[in-house]
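Sequence, please.
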């Protein structure tokens, strides 16, 4: 999986729930909430005041390590 700022969080978690800690690191503790699962990386980072590019980089490294 390749993650971009427009990737939906639910799609990431459906692909690999082991990616959840990356969201918890930015303070996104509402992963079970239907609204949060439908947000993009960019939207979630804007709400939580974090850098979307950094999260995308971490997630892509996570998925690359699993390949």
């Amino acid at each position: 999986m390749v993650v971009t700022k427009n990737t939906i969080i639910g799609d990431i978690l459906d692909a690999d729930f082991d990616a959840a800690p990356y969201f918890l690191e930015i303070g996104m503790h509402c992963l079970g909430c239907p609204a949060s699962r439908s947000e993009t990386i960019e939207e979630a980072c804007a709400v939580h005041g974090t850098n979307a590019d950094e999260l995308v980089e971490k997630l892509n490294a996570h998925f690359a390590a699993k390949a």
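The CA atoms of residues 13 and 48 lie 18 Å apart.
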